[in-house]
Amino acid sequence: MKRLLMTTAVSVMAMAGVASADIKIAHIYGKTGPLEAYAKQSHDGLMLGLEYATDGTMEIDGEKIVVIEKDTQLKPENGKVLLAEAYGDDEVDLAIGPVSSGVALAMLPVAQEYEKLLIVEPAVADSITGSNWNRYIFRTARNSSQDAVANAIALAGEDVNIATLAQDYAFGRDGVAAFKEALEGTGTNIVHEEYVPTDTTDFTAAAERIFNAMKDVEGEKKLFVIWAGGGNPMGKIQAMEPSRFGVELATGGNILAAMASYKDFPGMEGATYYYYENPNNDVNDWLVETHQERFGSPPDFFTAGGMSAGIAIVEAIKKAGGTDTEDLIAAMEGMEWETPKGTMKFRAEDHQAMQSMYHFKIRVDPDVEWAIPDLVRELTIDDLPIPIRNK
User: Distance between CA atoms of 183 and 222, rounded to whole angstroms?
Assistant: First the structure.
């Protein structure tokens, strides 16, 4: 295991004092707004990843790494402008972000226009490395298909009937589409799809439509929820007693704060991107130990993602021998590297990072603030047939 280091990375909001030989990285993300918790985890993880991969020096071949932060406020138009500013005015070597899939989709053409890399982390929508992809886009985050295939493995079965509830934007719609595709041939039926605005807090009408669609269906019945941010749809729908209609709730993993509400669902199964106790490798051991020491808590969902991106950046620059974009693309296509989740690999065809997911079963411990997603099975790269969607 790498030694524990307390080195603080260089992170700045402007370019004053940055030498021309420095390796400049823009982190463009929704630092403020409804997904602020996700953003903080992503940035903390990025800086830890850069530190880990450089043995605390924050240098690659003697060149200092400088990270410039830019806040999209979760607005797509801001993401476009800030990425152009980073490439043009700040002359960064590459960029990373954002949090929101909608913002990411707006940023993709800017990377192509400037012919500079954008490493997408943690935005999830399939279309980012699918229909809207271009060759300057790499993604360390999982995509909707990886979520969908993993949850399909966890939930599917003969005579299982599923309704879905998702947010009405790219993340939710791509997620449901991929989930439906992953269930094909499993004997599982999709009975109803419900989409609601991203800021919904009252789920009464949506739940009633779902219950009406499910009440007369025979067999096992589940409501699968795809959600990001607040609103607590799981808890509010559970309060409406879906068991009256024989409906059980199911969902994938989430950040620890959100998983406090999962305590209402002991025994619930699903699949998650990351929970700090599930992976077993040296990188994760370092992350858990270091994060606990510095922040007084275990690393969370998007901390692991940010760290994976930071390590990928360092490994790619080392492999390419510099920051030339074409050299980086050549180095990164097919590149494997070690992360808190184990080995990841950039697929050459669409630059999507192939990675493990984790089938879980919820356990409730009164001494732990959140529900614990006990590992049922690690779903490895070989277990997850993820479609290529950029054709």
Answer: 14
Residue 124 near residue 171, CB atoms below 8 Å: yes
**Residue 292 to residues 37, 298, 299: CA-CA distances in angstroms?**
17, 5, 7
- Contact yes or no for 144/389 (Cβ under 8 A): no
CATH fold for domain 145-272+357-383: Rossmann fold (3.40.50)
Show the tokens assigned to 79. Answer: 């993401």
Q: Please state whether the predicted TM-score (pTM) of the whole model is above 0.85.
A: yes
Q: How far from chain centre, in Å, is Cα 182?
A: 19
CB under 8 Å to 169, separation ≥6 — which residues?
101, 102, 198
Domain 11-142+278-354 adopts which CATH fold? Rossmann fold (3.40.50)
Rounded Cα gap, residues 135 and 25, in angstroms: 19
Element (H, E) at 346: strand 342-346
Q: Is 267 left (phi over 0), alpha (psi -120 to 50) or beta?
A: left
Which tens digit of pLDDT belongs to each residue from 49-74? 999 999 999 999 999 999 999 999 99
Domain(s) labelled CATH 3.40.50.2300 in the chain stretch across: 11-142+278-354, 145-272+357-383
